[in-house]
Design goal:
With about 675 residues, the chain is an alpha+beta fold. The strands form four sheets. The protein has a six-stranded mixed beta sheet, sandwiched between helices. A six-stranded mixed β-barrel has the order 14-15-20-17-19-18. Helix 3 (about 100-110) crosses helix 4 (about 115-130) and helix 9 packs antiparallel against helix 18. The structure holds adenosine-5'-diphosphate and magnesium ion.
Length: about 675
């Protein structure tokens, strides 16, 4: 049944070739107990490895039941070991993390037999060999003799035609030696048992034939076989069965619990990092865009003409600001903004005021086109109510201004006084420009923009100025002449026109106005649109951009370190299982199944940290948002949305990719690194 013809096997040791077996011819029968003797290093284990197809010979051919081993593909070799060849080792090589039944049933489970049937069969064997009492025992608690007898049951459960036993009694006492030999002896009545042994006593007592190896060949053979024998081959097929892989993985999972917890924590931290970053990247821009609009200044700007003038006899230049040409502005802003005169000569944009009669330091005053806030979609009012109609005696103040007052400022009275002179030619009119406002409402604005500010109605000032007549100038002109008439007709470089126009636009038009502003800047135009809101917001946006960019290296670092942890733990896990993997290999496991066990374990860890990170990630991002909002007054900076960047389930998908990719790479790398080192060596090291 086994025929070796001119077989040679060499190893490279220290760069030198050494033939362990050479020119070896051997014919073995279909049944009987054949002992192989020889000094240590004479190639006994190597011979068994050639027969089990764990290794290939370098010369000659090995025929098993008429089939040339070197012509078989890897899957056929694996099937051969699973169904036709059983291994028994000196040091038992049971799977310590599996119980007795699972160890015995292992080859059956690998071949795809239903778990219940496999366990039944394992129990029957235990009963037959009077080992029933071991059924519930933990493998690690068995005595050496018990372990070896369990190993024998594992080797024979698939009823292989050949049993290969490498010094099976080497680690046993006399009593157990006898039990083991009796089991083997019995099995050899119908099957072939090839046993390597140094023990002359048992070799003599049990062997049907004794072969001695020396100098790479056979030095002695007690009974040569004349003719090759073959047995009838029952073709058995392996069914794909994930059950045993799951079961084995489960066992390792418990065994490697500490390592897995470490790996879990490592992945969890990096997944948190990813989620927080996604939350920040995806929501900060949206939030800031929203926040930007939360300012009453957002839809107003001022436009002026700035001309550089050389100063004669000096290298310096002078910037002369004047009011632009109205019709030129109309062309520029057609349809996107309304153009209004600037009355800041009358109500200065930074002015002292008194509140309830008490004089206060200057504060910012800003005209607003719509003091009723009707055109605002957002509800910015946090105290009081915006006036129903345009009104000159009602103003809005922001939160920062309100905090200057310290209590609810609603209904408080703000007063400003301004005594002005208006000169037309040589006629001078004096004007007492005093106003009292009641605070109608407090608004909450984009926090970065805000200094204390009072918003008054531009339209009401305009109407007021239209009804305010300049007495002396009117008499001189011979007609009613209002302040408004005067402002509208004053020359572009007159202080009364404040050298500028106000422009007002809607939220929808804001982007177009800002584009025009950028274009003017780019083209180096004399016209300049200035917007305090926009300037502050651009500064803020740049800050956020810088922050976002500086987040990236940290994120990459987190990913790399988590990946490294994953690879390292996976590598160490692979190393710790290599012996077991070698045993599985000898028992006929498929190469990919063995790889999958490591992958499975790592994937389970990874997926569970993924789930944990998603479950905890949402509250965590909320917490971050909350903490950030306390320091920068902007809510929702790190909000994790399920459709971040407009992609449904984006955070989940992203984490899933990492959760799958990390363990795959983490499992592949160690196996790639170890691919050159034969698993067989793990078994022969004893
Ligand atoms: P035995 O089982 O008779 O003690 P082995 O068959 O295990 O001997 O080994 C025979 C010789 O081959 C030994 O010298 C051993 O060091 C060498 N050898 C076995 N396996 C390998 C291997 N994978 N790589 C290099 N040398 C090996
Ligand atoms: Mg050996």
């Amino acid at each position: 049944m086994i025929k070796l013809s001119k077989v040679g096997k060499k190893y490279i040791e220290g760069g030198e070739e050494r033939w362990v077996l050479r020119n070896l011819d051997l014919l073995l029968p279909t049944k009987g107990l054949i002992s192989i003797k020889g000094e240590s290093g004479s190639g006994k284990s190597t011979l068994l490895n050639l027969i089990s197809m764990m290794e290939k010979c370098d010369e000659g051919d090995v025929y098993i039941n008429g089939r040339n081993a070197s012509k078989l593909i890897e899957k056929e070799r694996e099937d051969f070991r699973l169904f036709d060849c059983g291994f028994i080792f000196q040091h038992f090589n049971l799977f310590e993390h599996l119980n007795v039944i699972d160890n015995i049933a292992f080859p059956l489970l690998m071949s795809g037999v239903n778990r219940r049937i496999a366990e039944e069969k394992a129990s029957e064997l235990l009963k037959k060999y009077k080992l029933e009492y071991l059924k519930e025992q933990k493998t690690s608690l068995l005595s050496g003799g018990e372990k070896q007898r369990v190993a024998i049951l594992r080797a024979i459960i698939n009823e292989p035609k050949i049993i290969l036993a490498d010094e099976p009694t080497g680690a046993l006492d006399n009593k157990n030696e006898k039990l083991v030999m009796e089991h083997l002896n019995e099995y050899s009545k119908e099957h072939l048992v090839i046993m390597v042994s140094h023990n002359d006593r048992i070799v003599k007592k049990y062997s049907d034939r004794i072969i001695k190896l020396k100098d790479g060949g056979i030095s002695d053979d007690s009974s040569l076989l004349k003719k090759e024998e073959t047995t009838k081959v029952v073709n058995r097929v392996r069914n794909n069965n994930w059950g045993w892989i799951a079961n084995v993985t489960k066992g390792y999972f418990k065994k490697d619990l500490k390592r897995n917890i470490l790996s879990f924590a490592g992945s969890l931290i990096s997944f948190f990092g990813i989620l927080i970053a996604v939350g920040f990247y995806s929501s900060s821009q949206i939030t800031i865009e929203k926040e930007k609009k939360k300012s009453l200044l957002y839809t107003s700007a001022s436009v002026s003409l700035i001309k550089e003038e050389e100063i004669e006899g000096s290298p310096l230049t002078l910037n002369r600001t004047s009011r632009p040409n109205y019709s030129e502005l109309e062309d520029l802003l057609q349809g996107v903004a309304t153009i209004e005169c600037d009355y800041s000569y009358f109500i200065p944009s930074y002015s002292a005021y008194s509140i309830n009669g008490e004089l206060r330091d200057p504060v910012a005053f800003a005209p607003i086109e719509d003091i009723t806030l009707k055109s605002r979609s957002e509800n910015m009012v946090i105290d009081g109510a915006a006036p129903e109609t345009d009104s000159l005696d009602r103003v809005l103040v922001n939160k920062e201004f309100a905090s200057l007052i310290g209590e609810s400022p609603i209904k408080h009275k703000i007063k400003i006084t301004n005594s002005l002179k208006i000169i037309d030619g040589n006629i001078e009119d004096s004007l007492d420009f005093s106003f009292s406002f009641y605070i109608a409402a407090v608004v909450e604005e984009f926090s970065f923009l805000n200094s204390p500010r009072i918003y008054y109605s531009l339209n009401s000032i305009k109407a007021h100025l239209a009804n305010l007549y300049l007495e002396k100038i009117s008499i001189a002109k011979g007609k009613n002449y209002s302040v408004l008439d005067y402002i509208e007709s004053c020359p572009s470089d007159s202080v009364y026109g404040s050298y500028a126009y106000n422009i007002f636009f809607s939220e929808d038009n804001a982007k177009r106005v800002f584009d025009i502003r950028d274009r003017l800047k780019r083209e180096g135009s004399d016209l300049a649109i200035t917007s305090e809101a926009l300037d502050t917001m651009q500064t803020f946006s740049s800050l956020v951009d810088a922050f976002t960019a500086s987040l990236a290296p940290f994120l990459i670092l987190a990913l790399i370190s988590s990946f490294a942890i994953n690879c390292f733990t996976s590598y160490s896990s692979y190393l710790s299982k290599r012996k077991d993997f070698a045993i599985m290999h000898a028992l006929g496991a498929r190469g990919e199944d063995v790889s999958n066990i490591n992958l499975f374990e790592n994937t389970i860890v990874s997926i569970s940290s993924m789930i944990a990170s998603l479950v905890l990630g949402y509250p965590l991002s909320r917490l971050f948002s909350f903490l950030l909002s306390r320091s920068v007054q902007i809510k929702g900076l790190v909000d994790l949305h399920l459709n971040a960047f407009g992609i449904p389930l984006f955070p989940i998908l992203l984490i899933l990719v990492f959760a799958l990719v990390f363990p795959i790479i983490g499992s592949v790398i160690p196996q790639y690194l170890m691919r050159k080192q034969s698993l067989v060596k793990e078994l022969s090291d004893e």
